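lol ok so funny story. i was supposed to be doing the assay writeup but got distracted and ended up predicting the structure for this chain instead. priorities right. anyway since i did it might as well share w the group, maybe its usefull for someone
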Amino acid sequence: MGKRSGKRIGWFDFHASLPAWAKVTLGVAAWALLIGVWQFTPRSPELEALLPTPTTVLDTLVHLFTEKNFLADVWQSLQRTFLSFSLACAVALPIGLLMGAFPAVEAFFNPVVSPFRYLPAPSFIPLLLAWFGTGNEQKIALLFIGVVWFLISMLMDDTKRVPVDFIDSSRTLGAKRWQVMLKVILPCALPFFLDTMRQMLAVSWTYLVIAEIVAATDGIGAVMMRARRLVRMDIIMAGIITIGALGFLSDAFIRGIRWWAFPYLRKK
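and the output, tada:
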């Protein structure tokens, strides 16, 4: 508990600021409860086959990495995810920045961008197979389509969050449009951009298995699909945990970049 205006505040007060030890304790408790229920819930042999215990899944993970060259599949999935996401950012960033800064650009692009946000990426699989075949390009294209439209819209909204006073002041001081874009709008919006990219990278990870189920011979999704045919739920759950761990680490990496690059935004 802490104090606000001379009063003690509890954990369940609105907008209460928890100390670091409390956040860690609550997080560990949540995971301990989840894993404990998963591990010790009574189950029949049939249910055990469908829902293996955490210890079984952990043993399977060790076996996959030590004897089945699972690291190569993880590396392939990492390459696909980060290459596709980097391409999506490279396309979305300039478009979103211009749409957020200039209403005319928004009026031109938004009628195309907005409808595409509502089209599920898996619906493009037949087209992508026809265009790119079953190779790596098809999987990267699917991951790209899954996030690029949302990225454009969200980066546009982030750009609009830059205070108008900053723009007006720079124009009053004689800054040209490109100077306002590069020296005022872009630096002010960058923290928001990183937050958006972090959120959308999580979405990209959720599309990974979908991208790797079609004629894939490697990658985490391919391993999981082969396990489904053999009814090896322990391997499937090991793949799910691996994707979750990779997503968590990538999220922490972007958070670290934001913390390092923008010290003035760190919470005191």
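The chain has a mean pLDDT of 87. Residues 48-265 form a domain with the MetI-like fold fold (CATH 1.10.3720.10).
back to the writeup now i swear
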